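Entry 12.
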Amino acid sequence: PWRVRGDRELAVTGRLATNSADVQRDLAVAGFGLIQVYAFHIADELARGRLEAVLLDHERPLRPVHALYARHRAALPKVRVFLDWAQDLIRTHEPRR
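Predicted 3D structure (tokens):
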């Protein structure tokens, strides 16, 4: 089930099921149906008109995104670069309310 506003559940059925946002996006673009993913996963498709947001009155409140990493690795440049990139990606595609 999909969780929607008010922590209600919406029963959905379909021919395919996946836990990959990339696969969900590709299937939606190909016309296989509705998906429920974070906005940053489909921002380009929305901007290009390949996908359209629906059921907006059932949207859940924004949820935090956390990055977990070993404390001793926090000082590594590649970890910092990734965290900066991920933070920018999420902020850039954050819905405006």
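Annotation: The chain has three helices and two strands. The beta strands are 2-4, 8-10.
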